[in-house]
Design a protein that fits this description.
Blueprint lengths: L1 H11 L3 H4 L60 E5 L2 E4 L3 E6 L4 E6 L2 E6 L9 E2 L9 E2 L1 E9 L7 E4 L4 H9 L5 H12 L15 E3 L6 H4 L12 E2 L2 H10 L5 E5 L1
């Protein structure tokens, strides 16, 4: 099962090889101001500035270890594993595979599945290779964990590095992203900053729980996709995911 999923990742994200050289190490010291705006995730008072959900800004932390940079493909040593084109880990490193076809999150150490969780609920309009701000879709791709918010109104929010370079280039080709915005984005990434969160592709995408205000939806999680573009699980499951991953951990999302 695991090997099949990794094969799917290769087929879906082969274009990452040509783009990995653009991406320097992700900045670890993440604050609300670094994202270009306040962190929020209130569905009922959504402003349109950030269309994912981080919840309350207080307590936001990224002090869970230094992230490993994305690099171009290199010969692998015996203890290195390639989980997607251009993305390698060591045999003890933790990462996650979100399979939207199976509505499951696999927590993986090296090439061994430690635990499978689900069901996963996603954006109200499904998933897409790349999403526009306000589209209510969840993006596919290879991301890194860039921070945690343990005080989110959705219990815990794990911030992912969307949009990545490949998303921006697709958005540019489709006419969603201007050349000026693309160049601003690439300059920020070369400077070691996290992905800009204020582009036409949206931001504040991550994995979160349901929180007290959304507990009623947990009963219908298998039938209802209710997020603005994030990946949601139960509160008990998001706690396990947050304990398993750290800043810099790869998260691969496939459909």
């Amino acid at each position: 099962m695991m090997m099949k999923s990794v094969t799917e990742v290769y087929a879906t994200f082969a274009f990452i090889l040509a783009l990995a050289l653009f991406v320097p190490p992700v900045a670890c010291a993440y604050t609300a101001s670094a994202a270009g705006g306040p962190l929020h995730g209130d569905y009922s008072q959504h402003t349109g500035h950030d269309d994912g959900h981080s919840g309350a800004s207080g307590g936001y932390s990224s002090n869970y270890g230094e992230p490993a940079p994305l690099r171009a493909r290199a010969p692998l040593s015996r203890d290195r594993l390639e989980i997607a084109p251009g993305v390698t880990i060591d045999e003890t490193e933790h990462w996650a595979l979100i399979d939207l076809r199976e509505r499951a999150i696999a927590l993986i150490r090296g090439d061994r599945v430690v635990e499978r969780l689900g069901p996963v609920t996603i954006g109200q309009r499904g998933a897409a290779e790349v999403r526009e701000r306000g589209s209510l879709q969840s993006p596919l791709g290879v991301f890194r964990v860039i921070g945690f918010n343990p005080e989110s109104e959705y219990h815990i929010f794990i911030h992912l590095s969307y949009p990545e370079v490949e998303h921006m280039l697709i958005g540019y080709r489709r006419g969603w992203v201007s050349e000026a915005t693309l160049q601003r984005y690439l300059a920020a990434r070369r400077a070691g900053e996290i992905p800009l969160q204020d582009t036409p592709l949206g931001g504040q995408i991550g994995i979160h729980g349901t929180g007290a205000e959304r507990q009623r939806l947990a009963r219908h999680a298998q039938q209802i996709d209710w997020t603005y573009g994030c990946y949601a699980v139960s509160d008990a499951q998001i706690e396990r995911i947050a304990d398993f991953l750290e800043v810099g951990a790869p998260v691969v999302v496939i459909d």
